[in-house]
Amino acid sequence: MVLDEAYGEYVVGEGFAGGLDFLADHPNLLVLRTFSKAYGLAGLRVGYGIGHPATIAILQKARLPFTPNAVAQSAALAALAAPDELRMHVNDVAYERERMRKEIEVETPVSQANFLWVPLPGRAESCVQACEAAGVLVRAMGPDALRVTVGEAEENNRFLTVMEGM
Asked: In 10 A of CB 111, how many CB atoms?
């Protein structure tokens, strides 16, 4: 069983269990993490898996040699050496995420990631076009919803301004 915790660093609320909490009782569990999201190293494609030693040993047999490269490894180590910066970034995203949820005039599900899912039945494409005209990039999730990445306050304000007109 594989549990993808790509957005795990963004979880700030109480009552959320992480995959590591289940490893001792589930030797078939592999928890995947990445440096692409909260650490901002998406272009380097570096991440890791945590699992029972027997599971890891099986995976090691199929692993390609020399990946990730030295640049990605150095960046990941530098990111791990800066926990205060990570916590500040995560707190900033959590604050902006909740501010955006409160200010959008659409009931938006609670998120523990660095993005919001905004339901807009039948209006997603027109909102995408309005956002693009305002210099805001969003992703349509079919005709009925948007995926909006939480950015800096100024960027989020531009999105909220577009949403006021929808």
From this structure: 19
Q: Whats the size of the chain, residue-wise?
A: 166
Report pTM.
0.85
Q: Which of 90, 73, 83 is nearest to 37 (CA)?
A: 90
The CATH number given to whatever domain includes residue 29 is 3.40.640.10
Q: Same domain for 99 and 73? A: no
pLDDT of residue 121: 95
Residue 6's pLDDT is 94
User: pLDDT digits over 138-151, tens only?
Assistant: 999 999 999 999 99
Alpha-carbon distance of 106 to 113, in angstroms, equals: 18
Q: Which domain holds residue 62?
A: 2-81
Tokens of 11: 């979880």
Q: How far apart are CA 130 and CA 150, in angstroms?
A: 18
Q: Which two tokens mark 138?
A: 């969003």
80, 71 contact by CB (below 8 A): no
Taking the C-alpha atoms of residue 157 and residue 17, their distance in angstroms, rounded to an integer, is: 32
